[in-house]
């Protein structure tokens, strides 16, 4: 019946076109650890990416063949997928990717845009963002927000050497001075807690 | 009595709507047959003959003037709707709305949209991660 349950976004493409698009995006994701696209495309690619990593964790001949069928450049990326990524997500029960909403791409293209990234990878933006938040709180001498604490727990939970890596990142991001050059406690509009 | 009434209607019809009668009734074969039947039956009292004769004479005038009335009696806009008026009409109630779902970026303190990354921090942190990845490789 028309207007019934839709099981996936069609993305205004026919099946073959959509399949090619998702394969392209997921190949780019495995290669670069993070892709920026529209939000609906990111959510659809997320499904395929999670399935691909599950195949990698299964790690047998059948799953290898199936993964070869998904990636466009399997010769370059299969070693990474069945090596690095498989080991990275060995203890994680699903949820290997993350979609973060971002500002629209341009003034004219006001479509919802998003970043799809591999969790705990070198381009984990949530990890860096949480570190930046902690760095700012420390600089201003404030206590952390409950959401910040939750995020810190999330980003360090399955990461090898999680807390140490996080502290390292806090130091590095603190040196960036994200709030601008004069963003010290004196020049800040809000009064510090201590 | 009923027959007389019918006759009257039949004879009045062309006088009231001369254009319709002349264009649509005469060319079709069936209607001409009906017409002939009416004509035969109408050999009746002279009073009705008179009643037919007068409107028939009048009926000639509107058919002459018919073309003139057509251009004058229709209601039409006096002026073309200006671009401004048209755009105002079409876009009424479609003005941009204010964005009120805003909060502060926890990393830099700037204003940002709720549930989205601050574009400033995203650019700088993303750039930093990119550089680190390239240095390692």
Give an account of the 3D structure.
Chain B: This is Large ribosomal subunit protein bL32m. Chain B: Keywords: Mitochondrion, Ribonucleoprotein, Ribosomal protein, Transit peptide. Chain B: It holds the Pfam family Ribosomal_L32p. Chain B: Belongs to the bacterial ribosomal protein bL32 family. Chain B: One of its GO terms (molecular function) is structural constituent of ribosome. Chain A: Pfam families: Ribosomal_L17. The complex is a heterodimer of chains A (194) and B (137). Chain A is mostly helical and 194 residues long. Chain A folds into 2 domains: 15-118, Alpha-Beta Complex (50s Ribosomal Protein L17, Chain: A), CATH 3.90.1030; 125-174, no CATH class. Chain A has helices at residues 15-32, 39-58, 61-70, 74-88, 125-140, 146-157, 162-174; strands at 34-38, 97-102, 113-118. Chain A has a 3-stranded antiparallel β-sheet with strand order 1-3-2. In chain A, helix 1 (15-32) packs across helix 2 (39-58), helix 2 packs antiparallel against helix 3 (61-70) and helix 5 crosses helix 6. Mean pLDDT of chain A is 90; it is low at 182-194. By secondary structure, chain B is mostly helical. Chain B has 2 domains: 2-70, no CATH class; 102-136, no CATH class. Chain B contains 7 helices and 2 strands; from the N terminus they run H-H-H-H-H-H-E-E-H. In chain B, helix 1 (2-16) packs across helix 2 and helix 1 packs parallel to helix 4 (46-58). The longest helix of chain B has 18 residues, at 119-136. Chain B is rod-shaped, with a radius of gyration of 41 Å. In chain B, 9% of the residues are buried. The chains are: A mainly alpha (194), B mainly alpha (137). The A-B interface holds A 33, 100-103, 115, 122-125, 128-129, 132-133, 135-136, 145, 148, 172-173, 176, 178-180, 183, 188-190 and B 106-110, 113, 115-117, 119-122, 124-126, 128-130, 132-133, 136.
């Amino acid at each position: 019946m028309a207007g019934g349950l839709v099981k996936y976004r069609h993305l205004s493409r026919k099946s073959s076109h959509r399949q090619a698009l998702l394969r392209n995006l997921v190949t780019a994701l495995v290669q670069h650890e993070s892709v920026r696209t529209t939000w609906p495309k990111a959510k659809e690619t997320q499904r395929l990416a999670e399935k691909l990593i599950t195949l990698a964790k299964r790690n047998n001949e059948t799953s290898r063949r199936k993964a070869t069928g998904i990636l466009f450049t399997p010769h370059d990326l299969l070693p990474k997928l069945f090596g690095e990524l498989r080991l990275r997500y060995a203890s994680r029960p699903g949820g290997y990717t993350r979609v973060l909403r971002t500002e629209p791409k341009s003034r004219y293209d006001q479509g919802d845009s998003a970043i799809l990234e591999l969790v705990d990878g070198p381009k984990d933006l949530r990890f860096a963002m949480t570190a930046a938040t902690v760095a700012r709180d420390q600089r201003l001498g404030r206590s952390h927000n409950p959401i910040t604490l939750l995020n810190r727990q999330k980003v360090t939970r399955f990461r090898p050497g999680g807390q140490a890596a996080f502290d390292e990142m806090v130091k590095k991001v603190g040196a960036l001075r994200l709030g601008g050059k004069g963003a010290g406690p004196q020049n800040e509009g809000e009064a510090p807690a201590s | 009595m009923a027959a007389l009434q019918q006759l009257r209607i039949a004879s009045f019809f062309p006088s009231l709507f001369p254009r319709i009668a002349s264009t649509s009734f005469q060319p079709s074969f069936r209607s001409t047959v009906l017409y002939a039947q009416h004509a035969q039956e109408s050999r009746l009292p002279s009073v009705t003959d008179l009643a037919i004769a007068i409107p028939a004479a009048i009926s000639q005038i509107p058919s002459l003037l018919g073309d003139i009335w057509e251009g004058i009696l229709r209601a039409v806009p006096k002026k073309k709707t200006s671009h401004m008026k048209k755009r105002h009409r079409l876009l009424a109630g479609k003005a941009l709305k204010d964005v009120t779902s805003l909060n502060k970026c926890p990393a830099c303190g700037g204003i940002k949209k709720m549930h989205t990354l601050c574009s400033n921090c995203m650019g700088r942190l993303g750039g930093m991660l990119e550089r680190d990845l390239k240095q390692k490789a």
